[in-house]
Each structure stands twice: as C-alpha cells, then as structure tokens.
Amino acid sequence: MSYNSSYSPNYYSMDDILATQERIPCKFLQKVPRMGRLNPSTEENDLKEGTDLELPLWLAIDCSMGRQPVVAPELPKIFKENYREILKADANAVDLHKFSLYFYELGSYVKGFDHRQEVHNILLHTFITRFRLIMDLANNSESDPSIQQKLDMLERRIYAAGHAAASKLNKWLLESGAQLEAAVLVTNHKKRKRVDDDLIGWN
Amino acid sequence: MFAEKACNLIKELSRNEGVLPPYNMDLVKEVCTEIKLLDEQNKSDGAAVANESGIANYSNELYPTLRVGVAAVKRNVRCLMAYHYNRLRTLRTMRWEFGSVLPPDVKANLNSNEIEWFSKYSRSLTKYMMSLGDEGLNLGVNLRPPKSLYIEVRCLVDYGKYELSDGTVLLLKKDSRHFLPRSECEELITQGVFQHIV
C-alpha cells in the first residue's frame, strides 16, 4: 500500500509536493519590499533587484509566470552541462539518488527553463537507459540490494511495483494462489508492534 | 522560508508509508497561524495595490510582495489539504483491511474528526453492502476463488469466544487448529487472527 503517488497536476500528490520543495537558483528581476527575510545573508527589509537566491520550486514557478515575472529561474546544477555529460556517458553508473531524490519530477518542471531541449533529451535518455537495469533488479531480487540505494523515487516505485508483480506471479505459478493471507496493513501493524514490545521488554 | 512547517507535515507522512503517524495537532495549528498572518498582510497589500487602477496595478511597488505572499498561502493550504486527504485515504484502506474495529493503538493516533469520519464511512459501507442482493453481500470476503468449502486454520492469538453463523461457539486459543467453512474464517484471516494452512 502506498500513499497517492500519481503525478502533477494531482493537487494532493505528496511526491509532487516534496518535489516542488527542492530549491533552485533564481535571480530577482524586481525589487520586492518587505521580503528581506527570504534572504538569510542580509538584514535589510527589502529584497533588492538582481539578488541571486535559491528558492523552492513552487515559489519560483509561481513568481516567474505572467507578463511581469518577479524572478528568473535558472537550471539547477544537476541539469547543467557538466552533469548532463556524466549522464550521457553512462547513466547506469550514476547514483541518481545523490543527484536528487526526485530527479525526473524536478527535471520535468525545470525543462521549460532550457530552450534548447537539452534537459528534455537527457531525461528521456537517462530513463530509457536505466529502465533495463530496474527491470533486471525487479526480476532478480536476490542480487545486491544496495543497488536500490542508487535509484530516485520514481525508479524506486517502479522497482517496488515490478518486484511485487514478479513475486505474485511466482506464487501463483507455484501454489496457484489459493492461500488466504492477512492484509498488508495488518501485517505491517503486527511487525511494528513486535518491535515496540521488544523495546519495552528491554527497558 | 514560507511553508516550511507545512512541508514538514507532508514529510512526516511520507516517512511513515503504510502506517498512520499520530495526528500532529501542534504543527497543524502553527501552519494555520502562518496562513492567518500571511493572509492579513496580503489583504493590506492588496488594498494598496487595488487603489491604483488598470495597468498601474502591475507597476505598484507592492505588487511583487503580494505575489509572493499569495503563493505562500496557496502552498500552505495545499500542504494542509494533502496532509488530511492522504491520512483519510490510509484510514479508508484500514477499514477494508482491519474491518470495522480498529486496533486501539491505531485509534490513539487519530484526531476526533478522523474517528467520526471512520465510523460514518464504516456505517455507509455496511448500509451499502446490506442493500446488495436479497440478504446483503459482504464485499470484504471471497476475494480469491475458493478451491474447497472447508479449510484448515491455525489461531495466532488468544481471541476468545467466536460464534459461527450456525450458532456454534468456538473458543479460539493461541495455536489451536480448526477445520472451518471458508466463508466463516476469511475475515479473521485478513485481520491476522487465523493463519491459513495449506
């Protein structure tokens, strides 16, 4: 069971909320009175025109729209040329989790800031290259579990779904799925309880 | 930074996937206060901007401030809504998996509105299931095609007395084994009281 994991424009999606919390570099195009506290490095009351500041994505998107944008967002460094080269060289070798927890979601938001479509292409390239790796992992779960740590959140969900499907299929082939089982939430609840009881026992 | 606290609410939920963490009343209240403060400020800024007419609106000095303020309120509201909505979704799944009675430690994590919602949801669900067919239909059972009418089960907990639909009363003790009609024990298996032995 997972919380709602569908993507934008889903208002309630927690993944989308967490992805739009990532900070990206921005430049202020207008003076913003009384918002000096957005910038921790000064004590002035007003935010000056031309200030460079890292803003959360939701604020940057909201303020860069319209006829008179307040800020001009820039590409985060993980989508800049240097990093794109790394991904082009071998996307499989990269620890995407370290790049960003929400690499693809963030990418699909910021790809609009880059007019040459480079970000668009690198997102596709990365996903296509790494998809085979994820599929392999999901079907052979006995292999090294630490490799999971290198996946970003979207890839982790795909991995978990693939893994669950593979084990369901196996079970059905072996036992034709006749056994009745406790619900997932119930089993989780019991496991937690066992841990809690153990802790109390120790004290 | 704006909406930091609201985002912490969401982070808390996403860390606890599959269980319900205690309802974070303190943080919710703090977020509400932040929204109120921002809203008051937006109102006064908005009044200043609205005083000028037409295109001059955009050139008002306070216009950018107003935009930032409104964005922050929208974000805070979104986080709050998502927090409550996603909790309810988990709660709804729990109704199907735990049955109409929640374990006490789960119940302790809910706030009073959520408890009320749960009992209302539970009631409408029962009402709906009673309205199906002639005698009602329990949608929580027979999720997998049955292979036999009777199955063997082992009891995992000291459950106490349990009455079958034909009136027989069983004493369910831990590790006792029973041979029962499948329809009688399916729900108890889902709730983790029985284990199905194949």
Automatic annotation (TrEMBL), chain A:
<comment type="function">
    <text>The GINS complex plays an essential role in the initiation of DNA replication.</text>
</comment>
<keyword id="KW-0235">DNA replication</keyword>
<comment type="similarity">
    <text>Belongs to the GINS3/PSF3 family.</text>
</comment>
<feature type="domain" description="DNA replication complex GINS protein PSF3 N-terminal">
    <location>
        <begin position="12"/>
        <end position="60"/>
    </location>
</feature>
<dbReference type="Pfam" id="PF05916">
    <property type="entry name" value="Sld5"/>
</dbReference>
<protein>
    <recommendedName>
        <fullName>DNA replication complex GINS protein PSF3</fullName>
    </recommendedName>
</protein>
<comment type="function">
    <text>Required for correct functioning of the GINS complex, a complex that plays an essential role in the initiation of DNA replication, and progression of DNA replication forks. GINS complex is a core component of CDC45-MCM-GINS (CMG) helicase, the molecular machine that unwinds template DNA during replication, and around which the replisome is built.</text>
</comment>
<dbReference type="GO" id="GO:0000811">
    <property type="term" value="C:GINS complex"/>
</dbReference>
<dbReference type="InterPro" id="IPR021151">
    <property type="entry name" value="GINS_A"/>
</dbReference>
<dbReference type="InterPro" id="IPR036224">
    <property type="entry name" value="GINS_bundle-like_dom_sf"/>
</dbReference>
<dbReference type="InterPro" id="IPR010492">
    <property type="entry name" value="GINS_Psf3"/>
</dbReference>
<dbReference type="Pfam" id="PF22466">
    <property type="entry name" value="PSF3_N"/>
</dbReference>
<comment type="subunit">
    <text>Component of the GINS complex.</text>
</comment>
<feature type="domain" description="GINS subunit">
    <location>
        <begin position="79"/>
        <end position="173"/>
    </location>
</feature>
<dbReference type="GO" id="GO:0006260">
    <property type="term" value="P:DNA replication"/>
</dbReference>
<keyword id="KW-0539">Nucleus</keyword>
<dbReference type="InterPro" id="IPR055221">
    <property type="entry name" value="PSF3_N"/>
</dbReference>
<dbReference type="InterPro" id="IPR038437">
    <property type="entry name" value="GINS_Psf3_sf"/>
</dbReference>
UniProtKB/TrEMBL annotation, chain B:
<dbReference type="InterPro" id="IPR021151">
    <property type="entry name" value="GINS_A"/>
</dbReference>
<dbReference type="GO" id="GO:0006260">
    <property type="term" value="P:DNA replication"/>
</dbReference>
<dbReference type="InterPro" id="IPR036224">
    <property type="entry name" value="GINS_bundle-like_dom_sf"/>
</dbReference>
<feature type="domain" description="GINS subunit">
    <location>
        <begin position="51"/>
        <end position="132"/>
    </location>
</feature>
<protein>
    <recommendedName>
        <fullName>DNA replication complex GINS protein PSF1</fullName>
    </recommendedName>
</protein>
<feature type="domain" description="DNA replication complex GINS protein PSF1 C-terminal">
    <location>
        <begin position="147"/>
        <end position="197"/>
    </location>
</feature>
<dbReference type="Pfam" id="PF24997">
    <property type="entry name" value="PSF1_C"/>
</dbReference>
<comment type="similarity">
    <text>Belongs to the GINS1/PSF1 family.</text>
</comment>
<comment type="subunit">
    <text>Component of the GINS complex.</text>
</comment>
<dbReference type="Pfam" id="PF05916">
    <property type="entry name" value="Sld5"/>
</dbReference>
<dbReference type="InterPro" id="IPR056783">
    <property type="entry name" value="PSF1_C"/>
</dbReference>
<dbReference type="GO" id="GO:0000811">
    <property type="term" value="C:GINS complex"/>
</dbReference>
<dbReference type="InterPro" id="IPR005339">
    <property type="entry name" value="GINS_Psf1"/>
</dbReference>
<comment type="function">
    <text>Required for correct functioning of the GINS complex, a complex that plays an essential role in the initiation of DNA replication, and progression of DNA replication forks. GINS complex seems to bind preferentially to single-stranded DNA.</text>
</comment>
<keyword id="KW-0235">DNA replication</keyword>
<keyword id="KW-0539">Nucleus</keyword>
